[in-house]
Amino acid sequence: MPHKGERLHFRGVDHSDYFYLSDSILYIETDEGGMHSILHTANESVEILDKVNDLTKTCPHLFLRCHQSYLVNPNYIRNLRRFELRLTSGVVLPIPEKKYTAFREQVTRLMKKDLLKQP
Which of 65, 93, 97, 118 has the fewest CB atoms lying closer than 10 Å? Predict the structure, then answer.
């Protein structure tokens, strides 16, 4: 299945330039210390210079913030359960108890909106 989406540019901590289609990114997490992030696709993980907080501002239409340390691509959410979500890859990400209901409603609203768009 070919990916589509916006073309995104990231600068790696190794000073390489990385280019990804937004639909190929599963999730992004803050690294230890919070100075960088780790971008995860189905095939690789890359440490990038961007911070999760900055990506929240520059890509709010592409990723949802499920936790202070994680941005998730909603296209890859398999299921939600109390205080966590599971991606299609099997990765489980936490959702804080205080944000769970609002996050669940946001995902549900988004999924219903996407279903209405399909022919």
Answer: 118
Superfamily of domain 7-117: LytTr DNA-binding domain (2.40.50.1020)
CA 103 → CA 24, 49, 99, distances in Å? 22, 26, 6
46-66 confidence digits (pLDDT tens): 999 999 999 999 888 899 999
CA distances from 26 to 7, 42, 45, 51, 74 (A): 15, 7, 10, 16, 8
Length of the chain: 119
Domain boundaries, the chain: 7-117
pLDDT single digits (tens) 76-112: 999 999 999 999 999 999 999 999 999 999 999 988 8
